[in-house]
Amino acid sequence: MFGIGFPELVVIxxxxxxxLGPQRLPELARTLGRAFAALKQTVDEAQSEVRDELRAxxxxxxxxxxxxxxxPPAEKPTDHGS
Length: 82
Prior knowledge:
Blueprint: H1 6-20, H2 24-62
C-alpha cells in the first residue's frame, strides 16, 4: 500500500485524529471509503470493457467471417424474347 508500513499508518491516523478531531474523522473515513469504492468500480468496469474488446478483436482475427457468396455477383440471364 504505497510503501507505507503499519507504524507509519498509525502516525498518520494519530495526526488525522489530532487535526480533524474525533467527530469529523469517522465522516472523513466514510467519505474516503466511498470514493475509493467508486474509483475501484470504475476501474473494474474499464478493465472489463478493454478485455471484452480485446477478446472480440482476437476472435475476429483468428476466425475470419464465413464466405457467403464472396465472389462477384452473378449476372442474371436476360430474356430478349428469342
